[in-house]
Amino acid sequence: MNQARRLRGAASRKAGRQAEVLAMIWLMLRGYRILGFRLKTPQAEIDILAQKGPVLAVVEVKSRTTPMAALEAVGQDQRERLRRAGRAIATSRPQLAESAIRLDLIAMSPGRFPTHIQDAWRGG
Questions:
Q1: Does the pLDDT value for residue 8 go beyond 70?
Q2: H or E, element range at 102
Q3: In CATH, what number does 3-117 get?
Q4: Tens digit of pLDDT for each residue in 44-66?
Q5: Which of 12, 14, 107, 110 has the fewest CB atoms inside 10 Å of its own CB, making it the most exposed?
Q6: What pTM, to 2 d.p., does this model score?
Q7: In the sheet that 33-40 helps form, which strands lie side by side, from edge to edge?
C-alpha cells in the first residue's frame, strides 16, 4: 500500500470518528441517552446505541453528500446484522429486554446539520 493511500485511509477514519461524536452530541441534545459507542458484537459493529423512553436505537452514522446517499450506503445485509446485534444486546441486558429496537440513521452532509432518520429502513 502506498503512502498516499494510507494517508487517505487515516483521514477517512478520523472523519468517521468525528462524525460519530457529532452524532452522539446531536442525539443527546434531543433527549437520547447514549448506552454505547462503536460497540463490537459478533453480529456487527454498532456506531451508537442510544435509548429514549421505550426505544432502543441502533444508530448507523454515514457521511455522504446527501441523506439519500447515506440511506443507500447501508445495504440489506448490513441492516440485518445491525438488527441482530441490537436484539442480542437487548436480550443480554435485563433493563433493555422490553425495549422496542429501531434502526436509525444519522446522515452527515457537508455544510448541513445532521439529519436523524428514525426507523430509517422501516423494519425491512
A1: yes
A2: strand 100-108
A3: 3.40.1350.10
A4: 999 999 999 999 999 999 999 98
A5: 110
A6: 0.88
A7: 33-40, 45-52, 55-63, 100-108, 115-117
DSSP bridge partners of 39: 46
1 C-beta neighbours (distance < 10 Å), count: 6
Cβ atoms of residues 83 and 53 within 8 Å:
no
CA distance 14 to 10: 6
Q: Are 110 and 93 in contact (CB under 8 A)?
A: no
List, in sequence order, every residue forming a beta bridge with 106; answer none if it has no partner. 61, 116
Per the rule left: phi > 0, alpha: psi between -120 and 50, beta: everything else, 121 is: alpha
**Structural domain boundaries of the chain?**
3-117
Reply yes or no on whether the pLDDT at 16 is more than 90.
no
